[in-house]
Specification:
single chain, 85 residues, alpha+beta, two-stranded parallel sheet, 29% helix, 14% strand, flat, Peptidase_S9_cat, hydrolase
Length: 85
């Protein structure tokens, strides 16, 4: 056990995103709203295949969408020039 913490608290956290997507009562949102996907190539939290996969699904469903891919950014867009895009 860690000497720094006695326990980790997960408040309303999601574990199984697929199951949660089907279980939500929030059926009022539009599944056809335009979407912008932004992903960094150095993101170690979310694999780039997740961003590319989301964009591919949007394109296949003919939902207006664009993707910005920054090969030298991580989970956050830190480069000031990239933030302006």
């Amino acid at each position: 056990m860690s000497q720094r913490f006695r326990a980790l608290v997960c408040h309303d956290g999601l574990f199984d995103m697929r199951e949660m997507g089907d279980a939500t009562e929030e059926l009022w949102f539009s599944e056809h709203d335009p979407m912008l996907i932004i992903h960094g190539g150095l993101d170690y939290r979310v694999p780039e295949t997740q961003g590319i996969g989301a964009f591919t699904v949007l394109q296949r469903r003919e939902i207006p969408s664009r993707m910005l891919y920054f090969p030298n950014e991580n989970h956050w867009t830190l480069n000031p020039f990239n933030s302006l895009v």
